[in-house]
Amino acid sequence: MFFVKAAFWMTVVLLLLPSNGQERYELYATVQRTAADIGSFCTRNPEVCEKTSSIASGFVQKLKNTAQTIEDMLRETGIASRRHEQSSLDPARYPRHKGWGGDAGVSSTSSLNGDTLTSEDLRPRWRGPGRI
What we know:
- The chain is mainly alpha-helical.
- It contains 6 helices and no strands.
- It has helices at 2-16, 21-39, 41-44, 46-77, 79-87, 119-122.
- 0% of the residues are buried.
């Protein structure tokens, strides 16, 4: 099914591409006129652009408020502090492991300093009773 869809879209693209110099020139001229028309939209319709801009800024403000609310809720439950604690890469907290021959797969530009596992990561997982 994937190949059928891919073949369909490739056919559509090939049909839309210009086949000679004249078609290519017409395509580029049309694209340039369309871009110029879109670029001058706000000069022809300033009230629409102003209203759209105010709506967009209001939407961005709502997104910021929502993100702040979610962050506050995570702080109250303690999830954010646990995640920050697990993801912080403090070199004093996670010293470089000498037995691995340096940074073991970490590039020289990386800020990681060797072993970043916490004590919780090192605990063995729970195993149920063995099968007989």
